[in-house]
Design a protein that fits this description.
Layout: E1 13-14, E2 17-18, H1 20-31, H2 37-40, H3 47-56, H4 60-68, H5 74-85, H6 90-102, H7 110-119, H8 130-137, H9 142-145
Antiparallel strand pairs: 1-2
């Protein structure tokens, strides 16, 4: 996959949740024409994006529209989403973060992860989860950075 300047790791946390910042980056980069369409367009609003919006109980298109208005920071966009969908409990955020950071490790997505690792010729990397795969595929090393150690 391409290395896209300004596209953050899925491990990056906004407030209490992982992945949200990456979804916002994809929205902004796609709008600016800087997100490679062949690699990302088909999944915008799908997959992890859809799961994140489901957690927040907001529609992807609504979040996209609000994000592209350009007047709110990531933290403010999260607050906007929580105003509409309700604030998640600390436990819900902990479960979300744990699920997302471990997706692909001994679960229903394991076969997909293995296939993607092969397709990207990343068999020599220490990839255990989809987040690890995304980071290595985009030129980051989550293992050296210990990206899963979420810091507030």
């Amino acid at each position: 996959m391409s290395i896209v300047s300004g596209l953050r790791s899925p491990y990056v946390k906004t407030g209490r949740i992982v992945y949200f910042a990456r979804m916002l980056d994809k929205i902004r980069l796609q709008h600016a024409g800087r997100l490679p369409a062949a690699e990302y367009a088909a999944n915008l609003g799908q997959g992890f994006d859809a799961r994140c919006c489901s957690l927040l109980r907001v529609g992807y298109d609504d979040l996209k529209t609000r994000t592209l208005a350009g007047d709110l920071s990531d933290a403010q966009l999260l607050a906007w989403a929580e105003e509409r969908g309700g604030r998640r409990t600390d436990e819900e955020c902990e479960v979300w973060n744990g699920f997302m950071m471990k997706r692909g490790w001994r679960d229903a997505a394991a076969d997909v992860l293995a296939r993607r690792i092969r397709e990207s010729a990343l068999e020599d990397k220490s990839i255990f989860t989809m987040f690890d795969y995304i980071d290595f595929d985009e030129g980051r090393d989550p293992v050296s950075a210990r990206a899963w150690e979420i810091r507030d």
